[in-house]
Specification:
6-stranded mixed sheet, 201 residues, 6 helices, Maf protein, binds inosinic acid, single chain, alpha/beta
């Protein structure tokens, strides 16, 4: 396989890898986890509320880690993502992973109890480094936080996230391909793939 078509995803999140594979494989790319000496990269995240800055930092840290290794001329993919709830000033945002681990979906539902404005969005900022060039894209998926946990598909906040462009089901109640066709990650990765292909004549 051409090195350009093999993408090494620098993340420890297996759900992100599974979704990136499902989205990018039909577009002709193979996605594998970047493992250095058997371990995924352990990033130091800068103190910021901007997922673009965190993503940029992840790609630079990855490039440093692979310099001089067998992976040094492979395409590297990074992503930073989160759930941004309007009524909570964008919380949990960049703290999504921590909030998911601590208060979880029950906690978010409790915080929003009695609140009619349940608008939120998932955002994913992805950067792909290939042959000395950076390709980046932001994917946004707007939706609402449900009043109860529904479904067990997907991961993280999916059982409480109802995409606006849907039929009222949460991502947790959808198949993987339905989620991918609407999700922030799906959008972001499809934009990246278009950028990689370049303008069509
Ligand atoms: P990070 O990009 O590693 O900082 O983590 C992003 C966090 O946002 C995840 O751990 C989840 O809690 C949440 N998140 C991002 N994308 C999704 C998604 O597609 N479904 C559910 N939760 C998500």
């Amino acid at each position: 396989m051409l090195k350009e078509l093999k993408i090494l995803f620098a993340t420890s999140n297996q759900n992100k890898i599974k979704e990136a594979r499902a989205i990018l494989q039909p577009l002709g790319y193979s996605v594998q986890q970047l493992l250095i000496e058997g371990a995924p990269p352990d990033f130091v995240e800068p103190q910021t509320e901007d997922i673009k800055i965190i993503s940029s930092s992840k790609v630079e840290q990855s490039l440093e880690m692979i310099s001089g290794t067998e992976f040094s001329d492979f395409s590297i993919l990074v992503e930073d993502s989160g759930l941004f709830i309007n009524n909570l000033g964008g919380f949990p945002g960049v703290y999504s992973s921590y909030v998911q681990k601590t208060i979880g979906n029950d906690g978010i539902i409790r915080i929003l109890e009695g609140n009619n404005n349940r608008q939120a969005e998932y955002r994913a900022y992805t950067i792909l480094y290939q042959n000395g060039k950076y390709f980046d894209s932001l994917g946004i998926c707007s939706g609402k936080i449900s009043t109860e946990i529904r479904g067990s598909s997907g991961f993280g906040f999916d059982p409480i996230f109802i995409p606006d462009l849907g039929d009222g089901r949460t991502f947790g109640e959808m198949s993987q391909s339905e989620k991918d066709s609407k999700s922030h990650r799906g959008k972001s990765l499809r934009i990246l793939s278009d950028e990689l292909r370049g303008p069509s004549e």
